From TrEMBL, chain A:
InterPro entries: Aladin, Beta-prop_Aladin, WD40/YVTN_repeat-like_dom_sf, WD40_repeat_dom_sf, WD40_rpt. SMART domains: WD40 (SM00320). Transmembrane segments: none annotated. One of its GO terms (biological process) is nucleocytoplasmic transport. Residues 128-474 form the Aladin seven-bladed propeller domain. The lineage of its organism: Eukaryota, Metazoa, Chordata, Craniata, Vertebrata. SUPFAM superfamilies: WD40 repeat-like. This is Aladin seven-bladed propeller domain-containing protein. GO terms for cellular component: nuclear pore. It comes from the Eukaryota. It holds the Pfam family Beta-prop_Aladin.
Automatic annotation (TrEMBL), chain B:
InterPro entries: Nucleoporin_prot_Ndc1/Nup. Pfam families: Ndc1_Nup (PF09531). It comes from Muraenolepis orangiensis. This is Nucleoporin NDC1. It comes from the Eukaryota. Component of the nuclear pore complex (NPC), which plays a key role in de novo assembly and insertion of NPC in the nuclear envelope. Required for NPC and nuclear envelope assembly, possibly by forming a link between the nuclear envelope membrane and soluble nucleoporins, thereby anchoring the NPC in the membrane.
Length: 533, 656
């Protein structure tokens, strides 16, 4: 079992991890003058203004206007439902008949008792929807984060970034336009994901609904109209905190912490099938296995389910300590790694038969120990470890990135990305690789592996200061080739495409890939995301 | 008309059993629903103990058992009607007149009549169980002159008539909302879970629907209620009780307890019927596993490839395509059977028949879209060929392909079909294993337009409808080469050639001025523009499965196909998908084609057929992307025309 004590010590403050090559992480000292590659983006907090407008705030701008009780109750019914209506009657007991105000007061008290009882069973239901998204989002410290969601397109070199001001930007190195998507209903984006086997469809999980944008890749428009977005909503299914496309691109599942059923959408037909199971009080996080056979669905309570997608039956997995925070699948869908809130270990579950009915192993095995470890660095002791926020496994199944929460108060316990090497043969094993470090003072908030990097794996990290960087890992893949990764012709190395990765000079001093007949043009030196002069 | 042997086995051994099982479950659920109804209908807040005890004694009484037997009979009859009237391709009325024709169709008349009677029976059972106020038609009363007499119990009459009204409205709504359409879901769940998931929706819908029906009923009764009342009084010699308000007055109708009882009885009627229909759908659409290759010679015609290519009821075709789509995604062992070679001889018979069948389905749709586009482009609006149902029926009889008379869509499908049916028929005649999916597009011999009165109108309509000209005119022949030049497959191009001699059923002799009625009918036909687009894609679920099945099989062949059987057909598969893609793109540029239908708030009838064209478009793109991402640059080695290569390059670069 791997533990953090086996890791090399974190870099001294001021060093930035650039890439992995020859089994080592390469770093460079950050200088004042840095040049990042074209896809390294920077969104300073100051440039993004979150919406301060709330629904009720506009009321103050208007003069008070007295209406009769009946009109007010009708408005309250439309705005806030039954409880709003009762409250309105109770508040204006002077106007209402006595029997009405008394009886509605009783009903209101009864309703409050019932909802508080329900809330005591599922404490998360008491949260406001913003707080709920922050609680269950995969992003560390979501409400304060400039970049709220990030998604690589599964087949091409473009990605979508959801920002604090509720807009989504799409970047493509091959095109000069970066479309900005805005929609009236696009509030508090918790998750974005591109549809597989499609060039244009982007699903967005919002506070009140689900949006599916159709962004024409050939269009030159920088502000696609909101007519390009399909709105998918279902009563009682908001806020949506997690979505997942099936790898075959036909179905979309969405989850909300307040809805016990998980929705399976047929997006083109705009119809949905609710899959309801009792217990759990909601669904917070979804992850579809790359082979399409299973879906992980975690709940706000110490329980998660693994659905089998052929007949949509599920297996219940009660956890001991807390809810399942994050999970990821191996490329062949036979193994799932997950972490539990309140525990500092990574569990592994194997699924033997991926074709037929669900056959999971009897118990989850611990594969890595992430308990706190103190490293002595020249700048002082740094404590690394603790609970896990997010797991990401690269599409070849060789690198596992773990985002450790750390402690935002204590300076010596920062949030850190730890990267493991994974080996499946002869037995499943995690081996230490190293820590990814960013600019001084920047904490990792979100990360995702590039879905089809041809020379190994590439991890994209979004930092707390609003910067997005890409860290490539160069290695030779030992496993079977991924169906969608074609190694013969990397598009950005071809003469037609612009160079995504600027050739830097830091690699020149090294032996160019002794054990790897790499497709990287050796004459140009190494290929790296961020070159330091 | 005449079925082949295999369609008989499937209907006998599968469809009938599934229907019987669904009816049995509906009957088993009936006691629970009836008990709920009794408890709710006798609800009294002030006397809970009395309420419970009354309910218990009623549930065990002899009259309850009698009415329960009656209700079972009703459920069985309704289930039988479900089986007889179901369809997997919705009949979409493209115009108001077509909808009217559907409503007046004799089959529909039988349906409405039977449902009326069933409604009366259920309402009578309700009247018996609800309580003394409704129990009998006649009650003793004392008239003004003192003598005891038999009076009419109007409450009973109102309740029983409500049953008839609800039954008739249910039947009408069934036509309007295509409630006999059996949709297939993208998510395969077990039957119990599917039923459980839909149950709350059904209960809610029946309650809401009952509310609307009761409201309409009360309005009707308020104005026309005196007719049945006086008729019954006269026939049975009953008196009117003058001490009570007559129920067709405002004061009589403002009886809250009666309104509640009417509403809950209507809900009960609808709930039992909706549940029967729901169970029927759940059972019928269950996945059926066809063997890819049957080990026994006598069951060879039940294998997937034979079933796909045979002439058969639509439901068999749909289930076979669904099975194909699922096996191509989920089961490597069955895929291996598809890719296998025949034992002596070494021919890929399984793959050949499956792929050619799927390709002919796609070619059918392409032709249909091209013809639809032509009619619309020449005229600005789609014309319907109700007029030529006459000549079509003649020619189709001669071609002997009007199959599946009983099992396909029951509605008068002939009047709403798209113009392409002539093509389809001729393509069926062209190659013997042509698509049996043309079945719904063969004309309906008992369509209302073949009634003598309308038949006379038919030839007069012809000159006004441009349809007769566009179809056989050089339009298609001219477009043909453009669209089809790219097809590398001899089969697809072969299916074009018989299309031009469709002029065999050429336009009738041009007559003089159309009559007034004909002109009126013609104008009525030009409505509901979106419906014509829906009608073109009415059976597109089959195309969606064909696309999914083909693309998954081709993608899997990249690593699983040992003998390279797929490679030989890869050019034609890509070609027909790209041609279809072009046709679909053009179709969506038509006005109204890309407008979304309103999302229905609450209805038991499934509206998925309204969005099938969007689903087809998405599936088509995904299917092409699935092939291009799997094969990648290898596709450059595939032989195809320059135009297709250009389109394919767009897909390879993810620019579509």
């Amino acid at each position: 079992m791997c533990s953090l004590a086996l890791f090399p010590a974190p870099l001294p403050r001021g060093h930035i991890t650039l890439c992995e090559t020859n089994n080592e992480l390469v770093s460079a000292e950050s200088c004042q003058k840095q040049e990042y590659g074209p896809l390294s983006l920077y969104f300073p907090r100051e440039s993004l203004k979150p919406h301060s407008r709330t629904e009720n705030s506009s009321k103050a701008a208007f003069l008070h206007h007295s209406e009769t009780l009946w009109i007010r109750t009708a408005t309250a019914w439309r705005e806030a439902g039954l409880t709003g209506l009762l409250e309105e009657i109770v508040n204006s007991s002077a106007e209402a008949p006595r029997w009405l105000s008394v009886s509605s007061g009783c009903v209101l008290a009864l309703l409050r008792r019932v909802s508080s009882f329900h809330g005591s069973l599922f404490p998360h239901l008491k949260l406001s929807s913003e707080n709920m998204i922050a609680e269950f989002s995969q992003v560390l410290n979501w409400s304060d984060c400039a970049v709220r969601a990030f998604a690589w397109h599964p087949h091409t070199e473009k990605f979508a970034v959801a920002l604090l001001d509720d807009s989504i930007k799409i970047y493509n190195p091959k095109s000069a336009t970066a479309p900005t998507l805005k929609h009236r209903l696009q509030r508090s984006v918790a998750c974005v994901q591109w549809k597989p086997l499609c060039a244009s469809a982007l699903a967005v999980a919002c506070q009140s609904c689900l949006l599916v944008w159709h962004v024409d890749p050939c269009s030159l428009s920088t502000r696609p109209s909101s007519g390009c977005a399909q709105v998918l909503s279902h009563p009682g299914h908001s806020p949506v905190t997690s979505i997942a496309w099936s790898p075959s691109g036909s179905l979309l599942v969405s989850a909300s912490p307040v809805d016990t059923s998980m929705m399976v959408w047929d997006v083109a037909a705009e119809s949905c099938v609710p899959l309801q199971r009792v217990g759990g009080g909601g669904v917070t996080f979804l992850s579809w296995s790359p082979d399409g056979s299973h879906v992980l669905a975690s709940t706000p309570t110490p329980l998660f389910r693994v659905w089998e997608t052929r007949t949509w039956t599920c297996e219940r997995w009660p956890c001991l300590k807390g809810r399942c925070q994050s999970g990821c699948w191996s490329p062949d869908g036979s193994r799932m790694l997950f972490t539990v809130q309140g525990e500092t270990v990574i569990y592994s579950l194997t699924f033997s038969d991926t074709t037929g009915t669900l056959k999971g192993s009897k118990a989850a095995a611990i594969v890595a120990d992430l308990s706190e470890t103190t490293f002595a660095t020249p700048a002082g002791d740094i404590t690394v470890g603790g609970e896990v926020q997010l797991l990401a496994w690269d599409p070849r199944g060789e690198r596992l990135a773990v985002l450790l929460k750390g402690d935002s108060e204590a300076a010596a316990r920062p949030a850190v990305v730890a990267v493991f090497k994974t080996r499946t043969d002869p037995m499943f094993e995690l081996l230490p690789c190293g820590f990814i470090q960013g600019e001084p003072g920047a904490e990792p908030r979100l990360m995702q592996f590039h879905p089809s990097f041809p020379h190994g794996a590439m991890l994209t990290v979004c930092w707390s200061n609003g910067r997005i960087t890409h860290v490539p890992f160069y290695f030779l893949s030992a496993g079977v080739p991924h169906p969608y990764i074609r190694t013969d012709d990397p598009p950005w190395c071809s003469s037609s495409g612009s160079l995504l990765f600027q050739p830097g000079d830091i690699m020149d001093s090294r032996e160019p890939y002794p054990e790897s007949p790499s497709p990287i043009p050796v004459s140009q030196g190494g290929v790296c995301m961020c070159s330091v002069r | 008309m005449f079925y082949t042997e295999q369609s008989c086995w499937f209907v006998r051994k599968v469809v009938y059993w599934r229907a019987a099982a669904s009816i049995a479950w509906a009957v088993l659920l009936l006691p629970a629903i009836a008990a709920m109804f009794v408890v709710l209908s006798r609800f009294s807040l002030l006397h809970p103990v009395q309420w419970i005890s009354e309910c218990l004694s009623l549930l065990t009484s002899a009259s309850a058992i009698l009415s329960f037997i009656l209700l079972c009979g009703v459920v069985v009859v309704v289930g039988f009607f479900n089986l007889e009237y179901y369809t997997v391709t919705p009949s979409i009325a493209c115009s108001k007149i077509a909808l009217l024709a559907q409503l007046l169709h004799p089959r529909q008349f039988v349906h409405s009549l039977v449902h009326c009677v069933m409604g009366v029976i259920v309402a009578w059972c309700c009247a018996i169980t609800i309580g003394p106020r409704y129990q009998t038609l006649a009650s003793a009363c004392s008239l003004a002159d003192g003598g005891p007499q038999l009076c009419l119990n109007e409450y009973h009459l109102v309740l029983v008539l409500l049953g008839a009204f609800v039954g008739y409205s249910h039947s009408l709504c069934g036509v309007m909302h295509n409630m006999n359409y059996v949709p297939f879901h993208a998510v395969q769940q077990y039957k119990y879970l599917r039923f459980k998931g839909t149950l709350p929706v059904v209960v809610k819908c029946s309650a809401i629907q009952s509310l609307y029906f009761t409201r309409n009923y009360l309005v009707v009764y308020f104005f026309l209620g005196y007719i049945p009342r006086s008729w019954i009084c006269n026939t049975l010699g009953l008196q009117l009780n003058s001490s009570l308000h007559p129920l067709d007055s405002i004061a009589g109708l403002l009886d809250l307890s009666m309104l509640y009882h009417l509403w809950i009885s209507g809900t009960f009627v609808l709930l039992t019927w909706y549940l029967t229909a729901l169970l029927f759908r759940v059972f019928l659409t269950e996945v059926y596993n066809f063997p890819v290759q049957s080990p026994f010679a006598e069951q060879a015609d039940r294998s997937l490839s034979k079933v796909l290519s045979g002439q058969q009821p639509m439901i068999l075709k749909f289930l076979a395509l669904q099975d194909l789509a699922l096996l191509s995604q989920h089961s490597p062992s069955r895929r291996a059977q598809v890719f296998s070679l025949s034992q002596p001889g070494g021919h890929p018979h399984n793959w050949n028949s499956i792929s050619s069948e799927c390709l002919s389905l796609l070619a059918d749709l392409t032709q249909r879209l091209v013809a639809h586009h032509d009619t619309v482009a020449t005229n600005g609006r789609a014309k319907l060929q109700s007029a030529d149902s006459d000549k079509k029926s003649v020619s189709s009889e001669s071609s002997g392909h009007s199959m599946t008379q009983e099992f396909r869509s029951p509605g008068p499908s002939g009047i709403m079909q798209t113009p392409v049916s002539v093509f389809l028929r001729s393509s069926v005649a062209g190659h013997p294993q042509g698509s049996p999916l043309t079945a719904p597009f063969t004309p309906d011999l008992d369509s209302p337009f073949s009634s003598p009165g309308l038949r006379r109108l038919a030839p007069q309509l012809e000159p006004t409808s441009p349809w007769g000209h566009t179809l056989q005119s050089p339009h298609l022949v001219r477009r043909g080469p453009k669209l089809w030049s790219a097809s590398t497959d001899s089969q697809t191009s072969g299916s074009l050639s018989p299309s031009s001699p469709a002029s065999a059923a050429g336009p009738g002799p041009a007559t003089a001025e159309p009559s007034l009625l004909a002109r009126f009918l013609h104008n009525r036909k030009e409505q509901l523009p979106e419906a014509s687009s829906q009608a073109v894609f009415a059976d597109s679920q089959s195309h969606i499965w064909a696309l999914e099945g083909l693309s998954h099989l081709v993608a899997a062949s990249f690593s699983e196909d040992q003998f390279g059987v797929v490679q030989t057909t890869l050019p034609s598969i890509l070609g027909s998908m790209l041609v279809l893609q072009e046709a679909v793109d053009r179709h969506f540029k038509l006005p109204h084609a890309s407008s979304k239908p309103l999302r229905s708030t609450c209805s038991v009838g499934d509206c998925t057929f309204k969005t099938l064209r969007f689903a087809l478009r998405a599936t088509l793109k995904t299917a092409i992307y699935r092939i291009t991402t799997t094969f990648g640059e290898h596709l450059n080695a595939v032989k195809m025309s320059a135009e297709h290569r250009k389109r394919l390059q767009h897909f390879l670069e993810f620019k579509e």
